[in-house]
Amino acid sequence: MRIELRDIHKYYGPVKANAGISLTVRSGTIHGILGENGAGKSTLMKILAGFSRKTKGTVSLNGSPMSYKTPAQASRLGIGMLYQEPLDFPVLSVLENFMVGLTGNVSDRNTPHRQIFEQLAKDLGFNLSPNAIVKNLTIGERQQLEILRLLGLGIEVLILDEPTTGISNMQREALFKALKQLASEGKSIILVSHKLEDIEALCDSVTVLRLGRVSGEMSKPFDTNTLLEMMFGILPVQATCVETQPGKTVLVMDRVTATGGRTGLKKCDVTVRQGEIIGLAGLEGSGQGIFLRLASGLVQPKQGAVFLQKSKMNGKDYHVFKHAGVTFLPAARLEEGLIPGLNIAEHFALQNRKGFYVNWSEAFKQAKKSIEKFRIKGQSVFPVESLSGGNQQRLLLSFLPDDPVLLLLEKPTRGLDMESALWVWEHLQKFCAGKTSILFSSSDLEEILAMAHRVWVFFNGKIVKDTMISDTDIHELKSAIAGII
Amino acid sequence: MQTLLRYSRETLLTAVVVFCFTTLILLIAGAPPFAAYYHIFKGSLGSWSKIAHVITVWMPLTLCASGLLYTFRIGLWNIGVEGQMIMGAIFSTALLRFGIESPQPAVFLGLSFFAGALGGAIWALFAGFLKTKGGVHEIFAGLGLNFVAQGIILYLIFGPWKRPGVASMSGTEVFPQTLWLPFLSTIRLSPVGLVLALTAVMVTAWMLRYTWVGLGLKAIGKNQYAAFLFGLKPGRYMLLAMAFAGGFAGLAGCLQVAGIYHRLIPAISSNYGYLSLLVVMLSNYNVWVAPGVAFFFACLNIGSIQLPMMLQLDSSLSGVIQGALVLATLAIYAWQTRNKQKEEQR
To answer: Would you kindly state where each structural domain of chain B is located, as residue ranges?
Structure first.
């Protein structure tokens, strides 16, 4: 199906999220929408998918202008969207999720749908068990399920919103292979991303958005610098990691075993020294999350001991760790890190609790200062759920204390565009000078290679590789992540 | 200005819906609706003594409502407020009984308030500990404890504290006048209660807005896990909220004993606890609106006493109106929210 967007405008009050965007997607191609956080990509796609209504402009499918108001209507026209966070039913099985929204005979519900499901999955090379319960799947698998579900509905246009956030490299390759196959079958694929490497690897053409407008278009082969210029206006500078001499021991894990997540953590034996930046690599759910939570006191070990600066921390809870200078930043921003319903100033007030009264003037002052310093797009009275994902991450980073002993960051640049991510790392590297140790998990090997001194590869709950960055390369790490040492 | 317009439009809409609904019920019951409304109005605001009666209902309602604002803020459904009020009344009675022969009754009167607050707070903390240490939902714990409190009060009235001679449903023996709260002689209204209720409202408003109690409760109520990461201890705040709610309800119970009934009766709480839950929900958890809503509910309670005499209608019609009011408000509020969402999508 050929899609044409003509002069799309979308206003949220005075904010012009889309200010006159036009683009064309031919059938059988993969078209990329590239832009930094807040450029208007998600807004545009939500209009195309029927989730929002445009303020002005036309959407034409195969040459005829269409008007639809809901995602259901859009999917009947053949347009489906894969959202960044999986929108599925975790307590139901894979097959039941697949069948959601499909009409059919109640009595022989399972048989024809099961066959359709298995055929679609086989065609795309997805390995999903129909009876598995969705909450036990990884994000990558849930994405695959969602794609199959949309295909089952008869989708001709598939929109993917930042699909490679939070999935492993192997899953990414499987996804890309499937998308290329779908395109060759005549479907139109639209990929929304801020990751240049994804766009360059997958797309036939790309539209670059900046500040709500189209700032450029390009067909393959792509030139990275040109694309960067279209995205940002100027070329951002690559940050390099500062090598420091590690100081005394900060954290020791002695044969620690714990349960949680998909794999738990088994017999973990590591040492962290002052000033080290360590990247935790591995497939999602291989134990990095549990490790970070053990190190912050949120989870207690079943066996073994955790030592923080020589004192044994078993049995002590999170607040003791926090007092000792350990700060944990979770990946799930709105579910674990921030409090929806409270505004920015209230969060700052929560940070500094002294005495009986809340010092509101101080809180607002601090909020304003941090908004300026961290370039958060929002005002002190805005509730945090109204901030974009990238700005929420900036807010979380602004809560970091000035002089922590140990920073535990779970996917710190998740959902951030390149410029923001670089800025984050510039900011984090200042901590190294102050002898702070940083442990961060990431699904982006390039990030780990660029920013860390050392890397631990997690596989199935164990650290299978512990090496200095200078002693390894990306291929070795990729193999280790897949379990091949 | 726009919000004010919208508020008044919502309130008007709610009033119309409730009016239609109750009128319908009255017609089905075979009663003249307008006569009923007239009698309720006259029965509550028709004379100064009637208004004084309304205020005697308003005081405990407002006290309980103020306390519930703490628990609602942290996301707890303190259904046990009824039992907390009863226990407050029991503790106050116990203390006053010590002061029957005393030459300084005022001291005992004063102490009875502390006793009432203590009783309510302890009862609330039972439910609170069951929640924080045992994971028991506060609705079940509260409801169960309400039944226990009812049992205790009946036991005391018919047992150890019974009237000499024959135990009676009309309660324990009346306290001597020295142990009554001072009241204005023309209208039987106790200014102490009035001051207490107003103070409760102001203290609550101040605490929720300017202190850690308010911000902590709000943060934990919205996202317990993130609040924990920020350094708050949800369990502690939950117990604190329960203690406040129970304490205020206990004060209401004390007021009932020392200022209104001057003895312990089986229906000492008169369902004011449950009613105050409705008051808080209807006032959208706003501390300044709650006293107004409480006044309206008090008018309905007192006014509908006229109905059996004048129209052979049961006075529980006031309950119908109060319930319908809350339902209609919630429905309209939900409808407005949905409209707003649809508007934003456009």
So the answer is: 1-26+315-346, 54-312
| Chain segment A167-181, per-residue pLDDT in tens | 778 888 889 999 999
Determine whether the interchain pair B227/A339 forms a contact, defined as Cβ–Cβ distance below 8 Å.
yes
pLDDT > 90: percent of chain A: 13
**Distance, CA of A211 to CA of A81 (rounded, Å):** 23
Q: What is the dihedral of CA B195, B197, B202, B208, to 10 degrees?
A: 150
CB pairs under 8 A between A and B: 61
Instruction: Please report which confidence band the pLDDT of residue B244 belongs to, taking 50, 70 and 90 as the band edges.
Output: very high
Contacts of A51 in chain B (CB under 8 A): 345
Nearest chain A residue (CA) to B214 = A358
* Contact state of B223 with A51 under an 8 Å Cβ cutoff: no
As a CATH number, domain B54-312 is: 1.10.3470
Enter the pTM of the model: 0.71
Contacts of A353 in chain B (CB under 8 A): 212, 231
Confidence tier at B344 by pLDDT (50, 70, 90): low
- CA distance linking residue A278 with residue B185, whole number of Å: 79
- Determine, for residues A353 and B231 on separate chains, whether the beta-carbon distance falls below 8 Å: yes
Element (H, E) at B248: helix B234-255
Find where tokens 């923080």 sit.
A308
- Residue B116 in contact with residue B91, Cβ under 8 Å? yes
The length of chain B, given as a count of residues: 346
**CA A280 → CA A171, A211, A232, A283, distances in Å?**
18, 34, 30, 10
Instruction: Answer for the pair A144, A164: CB distance below 8 angstroms, yes or no.
Output: no
pLDDT score of B320 more than 80:
no
Q: Alpha-carbon torsion B164, B168, B172, B175, what sign?
A: negative
- What residues in B contact A340, CB-CB < 8 Å? 222-223
**Chain B residues within an 8 Å CB radius of A347:** 230
**Best residue in A339, A342, A348, A351 to probe B by mutation, most B CBs within 10 Å?**
A339
- Of how many residues is chain A composed? 485
C-alpha–C-alpha distance, residues A81 and B123, integer Å: 53
Of A441, A462, A411, A435, nearest to A309 (Cα)?
A435
Chain-chain contact of B223 with A340 (C-beta, under 8 angstroms): yes
DSSP E strands: which ranges in A332-453? 406-410, 437-441
Q: Distance, in angstroms, between B1 CA and closest chain A CA? A: 18
For helices B48-73 and B191-210, give the axis angle rounded to 10 degrees.
30
- Note the pLDDT tens digit of each residue in A438-480: 999 987 787 888 888 899 998 888 888 888 888 888 778 877 8
Cβ of A342 and B233 within 8 Å? no
* Domains of chain A as residue ranges with CATH: 3-232 (3.40.50.300), 249-481 (3.40.50.300)
Residues of B in contact with A336 (CB under 8 A): 225-226, 229
Min distance B187 CA to chain A CA atoms (Å): 41
Q: Over range A312-330, report the average pLDDT.
A: 87
pLDDT at B284 over 70: yes
**Do B231 and A319 count as a contact with CB atoms less than 8 A apart?**
yes
Q: How confident is the model over B66-110, as pLDDT tens digits?
A: 999 999 999 999 999 999 999 999 999 999 988 888 888 888 888
Per-residue pLDDT band for B333 (boundaries 50, 70, 90) equals confident
Mutate to test the interface with B, among A52, A334, A354, A358 (most CBs of B within 10 A): A358
Euclidean distance between CA atoms A228 and A226, whole angstroms: 5
